[in-house]
Write a structure and sequence with these properties.
Length: about 180
């Protein structure tokens, strides 16, 4: 009875560790780049999402440009258009109130850098933010979650050491 408990406990702990990391998902960083009209001020802003944005719909975000905080976003998968506003956004370029802007970045449903195509730059509230965008970089956020194969390697090493210690302890008792 003791022998099966001693072996079963480390195996159960190893399984729990492995199962907890299998469903881990890395975040995705969206970074928009551009300059002001004089080329003297960088207008780079970014936000993080839990996964790639690939379907049409609203998402919450938070970033600041020149003292203005934008909290709402919308992505139109049909035109790869991102829209941002201080109020709720329900279309890529159909803004009704607040400071808002949008931009189309063809192919922006995967990792990489994408140039703005010049379309969809509607401005609300007298801001010229949209005119300043030039590119979008989508990249995975480096996660600190270890990969499952490393955990398996660590677990089998720990089991090997535990087995060696067990053999030594049981070998001394037999003397």
């Amino acid at each position: 009875m003791k022998r099966s408990f001693c072996l079963g406990l480390p195996l159960a702990a190893l399984l729990i560790v492995l199962m907890s990391s299998v469903g881990a998902q890395a975040d995705v960083l969206y970074t928009f780049h551009g300059n002001n009209f004089n080329g003297t001020h960088d207008n780079t802003f970014s936000f993080t999402e839990s996964s790639l944005i690939t379907t049409t719909g609203f998402f919450e975000t938070s970033f600041v440009i020149d003292g203005t905080t934008f909290t709402n976003g919308f992505f139109d998968a049909g035109s790869d258009c991102f829209g941002f506003s201080q109020s709720l956004v329900n279309a890529c370029d159909g803004f009704t109130s607040g400071v808002s802007f949008s931009g189309r970045f063809p192919g922006a449903t995967t990792f990489g850098t994408f140039k703005i195509d010049g379309g969809g730059c509607n401005i609300g509230g007298g801001s010229l933010v949209c005119e300043l965008l030039s590119s979008l970089t989508i990249s995975p956020v480096t996660a600190v979650t270890p990969e499952p194969s490393s955990l398996i390697l660590l677990g089998t090493g720990a089991l090997g050491i535990a087995g060696a210690i067990r053999r030594r302890v049981t070998g001394r008792r037999g003397l």
